[in-house]
C-alpha cells in the first residue's frame, strides 16, 4: 500500500471493485449500509446497523469477505480482513462470528478433550516467512494468512488445490505453525488423507474394542484445527469418506478450522460423495499455479540465503529459467548445484550450472505423443488408458476421454481419423464432437482452462 494511500482512499478503491463484482442491488443491500471506521493494524473496521447485522454478516461470510481480502491484497500487498462493530453496542465482530463476543471455553469443557501434541506432523520449516509469494500463489497465500489469524471464522473449510510440488503442503502447514505459535495450547493435527484412512481402519480392526473407535473419534473431533493433505486419495473409498463427513460436521459445527489440499478441484475428484463436495463448496478454494520465472529465481535466492551461499545472479537466473516444472524439481536442481560447489569444489559458475542441468535433463523436452497424453489424463482422472479407449460411458470416463482427445488434437499434428484410431477406432464425428465440447468449455470456464493448461504442462515436462 502506498504510504500516501489512507483508509478512505483504500475503501474507495475496494468498494468500487465490489460494486463492479456484486452489481448495484447486492452492493446496495450488503455493502452500502456499512460505515467505514478505518484501519486498525491488519483489520478494516466497519460499523453495521444492528437491525441488519445478521443478514449482512451472513452474506459477507458466504461471498463478500473473500473478495474484500483479495482486492485489499492486490492494492496494498498486505492481508487486511474486514471487521464489524454494531452501531448500537460497539461490539467487535468478524465475519462468521456474528454480533456477539466469542465466549471462552470453560475449563470443564476443555478437560473433556484428550491431550494432543502439536509436534505430530507439523514441520517447523514450513512457515509463511519461507513461502515465496508470486503471481501463481499470492491469492492462496493471502487467504492462508487470514485462516491462521482467524481460524474457524471467515474461510472454513479452506481447500488449496494444484499440481505436485507447487507448495500446497508448505502453505497448509504454515497455517498450522502460525496458529500454534499464536496459541500454544491449541489442539492442531496435520495428517495426510492416507494417515486419516489408516487411523480409521486401525480403530476398526480392533473389533470389539469400542474404546479404539471412540479414541479415534475423540482425537479428530476435539481439535481446534485439522489439516488434511491430498484428499483425492479418498476417491472410491466410501467408508472413510463417511467418517470424514462426520468429523467435518463435528468440527465446523464447533467453529473449528479445517484446511485441506488436493491435486485437483473437488468436483473433479472421481467417486467423491456429493455431500462432501457440497460441504467443501461452503468454504473457500484457492488454486496454486506453477511459479513464473521471477518467482522461481526468488525461490532460488531464498534457498541461497538459507544455505549461506554466494551464487551469482546470472547463475540463479539460468537455473530458474531452465527448470520450469515445479518447486520440488527446482529445489532438487538447487541442491544438486549446491553439492557440486560444496563437496566437489566446483565453481559457482554458468558452466557448473549447465552441467547439473544436463544431468537432470532439464534442457531436454519430452516428445509429446498420444500415448503420453493418454497416460497423463488417465492418471489425473484415476482411470485406465484401456478404459479410456473402450466404449464405456461412465461420466468420469467420458470426461477423461474428451479431455485426452482435445489435448491430442492441440498438442500433436495427428489428424482426426488418426486420433479416432488411437482412441478405440472411433469415427471422425465422435472425435470432432469431443474436441468441440472441451473447446467450448475452455473458452467459457476459467477452471477448465486452468486444468487443461496444467495437464499440458505435465505432458510436456515428462513428469
Automatic annotation (TrEMBL):
It comes from the Bacteria. Residues 154-289 form the AAA+ ATPase domain. Residues 93-107 have a biased composition (Polar residues). PROSITE patterns: DNAA (PS01008). The keyword Transmembrane helix does not apply. Residues 1-89 are annotated as: Domain I, interacts with DnaA modulators. ATP binds at residues 165, 167-169. Residues 369-438 form the Chromosomal replication initiator DnaA C-terminal domain. Residues 342-463 are annotated as: Domain IV, binds dsDNA. SMART domains: AAA (SM00382), Bac_DnaA_C (SM00760). Signal peptide: none annotated. Its main location: cytoplasm. Belongs to the DnaA family. Plays an essential role in the initiation and regulation of chromosomal replication. ATP-DnaA binds to the origin of replication (oriC) to initiate formation of the DNA replication initiation complex once per cell cycle. Binds the DnaA box (a 9 base pair repeat at the origin) and separates the double-stranded (ds)DNA. Forms a right-handed helical filament on oriC DNA; dsDNA binds to the exterior of the filament while single-stranded (ss)DNA is stabiized in the filament's interior. PANTHER family: CHROMOSOMAL REPLICATION INITIATOR PROTEIN DNAA. Domain I is involved in oligomerization and binding regulators, domain II is flexibile and of varying length in different bacteria, domain III forms the AAA+ region, while domain IV binds dsDNA. Oligomerizes as a right-handed, spiral filament on DNA at oriC. This is Chromosomal replication initiator protein DnaA. It comes from Fructobacillus papyriferae.
Amino acid at each position: 500500500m502506498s504510504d500516501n494511500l489512507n483508509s478512505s482512499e483504500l475503501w474507495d478503491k475496494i468498494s468500487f471493485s465490489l460494486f463492479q463484482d456484486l452489481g448495484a442491488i447486492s452492493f446496495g443491500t450488503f455493502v452500502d449500509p456499512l460505515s467505514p471506521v478505518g484501519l486498525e493494524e491488519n483489520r478494516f473496521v466497519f460499523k453495521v446497523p444492528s437491525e441488519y447485522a445478521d443478514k449482512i454478516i451472513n452474506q459477507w461470510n458466504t461471498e463478500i469477505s473473500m473478495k474484500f481480502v483479495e482486492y485489499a491484497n492486490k492494492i496494498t500487498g498486505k492481508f487486511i480482513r474486514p471487521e464489524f462493530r454494531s452501531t448500537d453496542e460497539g461490539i467487535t465482530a468478524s465475519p462468521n462470528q456474528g454480533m456477539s463476543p466469542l465466549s471462552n471455553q470453560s475449563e470443564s469443557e476443555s478437560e473433556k478433550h484428550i491431550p494432543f501434541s502439536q509436534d505430530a506432523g507439523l514441520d517447523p520449516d514450513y512457515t509463511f516467512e519461507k513461502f515465496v509469494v508470486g503471481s501463481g500463489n499470492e491469492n492462496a497465500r493471502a487467504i492462508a494468512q487470514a485462516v491462521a489469524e482467524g481460524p474457524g471464522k471467515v474461510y472454513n473449510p479452506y481447500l488449496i488445490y494444484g499440481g505436485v510440488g507447487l507448495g500446497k503442503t508448505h502453505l497448509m502447514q504454515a497455517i498450522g505453525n502460525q496458529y500454534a505459535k499464536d496459541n500454544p495450547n491449541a489442539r492442531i493435527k496435520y495428517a495426510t488423507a492416507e494417515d486419516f484412512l489408516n487411523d480409521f481402519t486401525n480403530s476398526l480392526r480392533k473389533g470389539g474394542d469400542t474404546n479404539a473407535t471412540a479414541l479415534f473419534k475423540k482425537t479428530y473431533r476435539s481439535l481446534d484445527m485439522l489439516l488434511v493433505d491430498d484428499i483425492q486419495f479418498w476417491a472410491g473409498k466410501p467408508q472413510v469418506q463417511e467418517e470424514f463427513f462426520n468429523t467435518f460436521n463435528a468440527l465446523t459445527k464447533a467453529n473449528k478450522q479445517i484446511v485441506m489440499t488436493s491435486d485437483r478441484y473437488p468436483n473433479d475428484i472421481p467417486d467423491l460423495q456429493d455431500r462432501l463436495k457440497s460441504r467443501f463448496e461452503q468454504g473457500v478454494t484457492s488454486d496454486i499455479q506453477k511459479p513464473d520465472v521471477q518467482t522461481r529465481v526468488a525461490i532460488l535466492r531464498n534457498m541461497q540465503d538459507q544455505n549461506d551461499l554466494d551464487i551469482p545472479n546470472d547463475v540463479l537466473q539460468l537455473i530458474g529459467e531452465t527448470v520450469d516444472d515445479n518447486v520440488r524439481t527446482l529445489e532438487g536442481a538447487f541442491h544438486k548445484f549446491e553439492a557440486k560447489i560444496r563437496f566437489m569444489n566446483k565453481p559457482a559458475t554458468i558452466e557448473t550450472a549447465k552441467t547439473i542441468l544436463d544431468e537432470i535433463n532439464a534442457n531436454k523436452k519430452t516428445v509429446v505423443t498420444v500415448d503420453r497424453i493418454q497416460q497423463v489424463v488417465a492418471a489425473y482422472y484415476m482411470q485406465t488408458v484401456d478404459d479410456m479407449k473402450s466404449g464405456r460411458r461412465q461420466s468420469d470416463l467420458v470426461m477423461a476421454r474428451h479431455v485426452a482427445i482435445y489435448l491430442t488434437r492441440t498438442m500433436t499434428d495427428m489428424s482426426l481419423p488418426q486420433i479416432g484410431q488411437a482412441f478405440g477406432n472411433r469415427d471422425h464425428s465422435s472425435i470432432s464432437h469431443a474436441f468441440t465440447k472441451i473447446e467450448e468449455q475452455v473458452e467459457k470456464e476459467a477452471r477448465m482452462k486452468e486444468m487443461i493448461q496444467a495437464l499440458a504442462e505435465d505432458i510436456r515436462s515428462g513428469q
